[in-house]
Amino acid sequence: MDEHESLTVRFEEQRPHLRAVAYRILGSLGEADDALQEAWLRAGRADTGSVENFGGWLTTVVARVCLNMLRAREHRREDPLDGQFPPDGQVSHPVVHPESGDDPVREAELADSVGLAMLVVLDTLAPAERLAFVLHDMFSVPFDEIAPLIERSTAATRQLASRARRRVKGGSPQPAADLTRRRAAVDAFLAATRGGDFDALVALLHPDVVLRADKAVVPSPEPVLVTGARAVARGAMAAMDRAGATEVALVDGRVGLVMAPLGRLRLVLAFVVADGGITEIEVIAEPDRLRRLELAVLDA
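The structure corresponding to this sequence follows.
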């Protein structure tokens, strides 16, 4: 086996791990495969014969490539939060990456494995924060190995990861028992919507429940107002196809739902829950409003 063949075999052995790292940093399977392609080219130009920990070396290379891609993304300010939906309620899928052989179904599986809410929250982090958190908290890379990548001290890198961790986990002003009760109601709402159980939805809603949706949800010229349990339940049934890409999350410290196909935030539902059931639902899709929300991952 010549040197090139040996490098190919060693790289392919690391590919699943490297793709997992790149996907969590970038949140896009196509971009993750671009990062791996660039890492392969860099490996081919480097003298790797004396590298003892080839997997660790490649992880560092991929992470550096991903960081550059995140920074370039920020400069371009390419924002996927368009807030619009096709008329049939189906969310369009990204173009299949030509080099990967994967399809949108594969990317959806990856998004589900990471968690839609996690991908959404990771996307709110600054590039250095995201890199420090993903490498340390998800892949156990030591801080002293991450620090040179982001040109920070080890202590500063630890602080970045800690700050990112607080953002990811969030916090709620509600007492634990109240949070549990509200989460149970929101979980039940999502389950009933996914299952198409109209009667269960009506039972969860207060008879005089009010739903408000901003202009980007439908879209429509004016915000939408719907009142009454049966009318709100019918609206939820109409959006049943979107429920598969929806997950429970903390929304400004309260339990809500994020709709994020392939980890791209499109819509948020904020709930008010009282003893009599769900009394208010606010549906948010306008990009500026979505950006202002503080989102966090809820523990399972």
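Confidence is low (pLDDT under 50) at residues 78-101.
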